[in-house]
Amino acid sequence: MTPARPALLLAAVALLAACTTTDPGTATADPAGRPESAAPTVTTGELDEESAPEPAPAPAVEFSERDLEIVEIGEPIDLGQGTATATVTGTAVDPGCTSQWASPPSRGHFVVVDITVEVHQTAGTLNITPFDFGIISADGVGEGDSASIESYSCMDDADQFPIGGMRSGTTYHARITLDTAHASGVVTFDPMFGIRPAGNGWEWEY
Questions:
Q1: Cα(46)–Cα(102) distance, rounded to whole angstroms?
Q2: Per-residue confidence (pLDDT) for residue 41, from 0 to 100
């Protein structure tokens, strides 16, 4: 029976070695009994193009049958090549005049356009007058000249653009009065000094 003991010892050692072998990437224990974690997995790669945010589309520009750009009240208007920015802040029908020399409209109604102009740079002075505006009736008929002696005398001088023009680096607030037969329709704004590349003006409903 003695010769069988070495063979039994060899079999026991082989079995012990098989039980203590660990697979790569699994947790093991150090001699002090503390667990050791597997190495973290690191992934590399480019950002998924589908997850990148899309740039916001530019707002569409809409033109009327008169080839004028349609704008909303409060929408800034670029007067061309960085010269000035105009913003129509309101349009009112028969709001009342402020001048002591005012007289009733000759065509039936006063349409008053409240407008702010920020002048950036000009070759001299910038002028905006009632002749730069017009009225289109609700059924699309142009009125022609909407400026009159009565419309000029409706607002006090403090409510109008300066006669000598607007200077660079200055912001102006004014009220343009138009004399019209139409209580509703479209106001057109096509400055005679305009430098827009397409040569278009603007319009909005009132």
A1: 71
A2: 54
Query: What does the domain layout of the chain look like in residue ranges?
Result: 81-197
pLDDT of residue 164: 87
CA angle (200, 201, 202) in 5-degree steps: 130
Whether 185 and 169 have beta carbons less than 8 Å apart is answered as no
How many other C-beta atoms are found inside a 10 Å radius of the C-beta of residue 2?
5
- DSSP E strands: which ranges in 37-169? 69-70, 76-78, 84-93, 109-119, 133-137
Task: Give me the residues paired with residue 70 across strands.
Answer: 203
Positive or negative torsion for Cα 170, 186, 78, 58: positive
Half-sphere exposure of 93 (CA within 13 A, CB side): 14
pTM exceeds 0.85, yes or no: no
Fold of 81-197: Immunoglobulin-like (2.60.40)
Bridge partners of 69? 63, 202
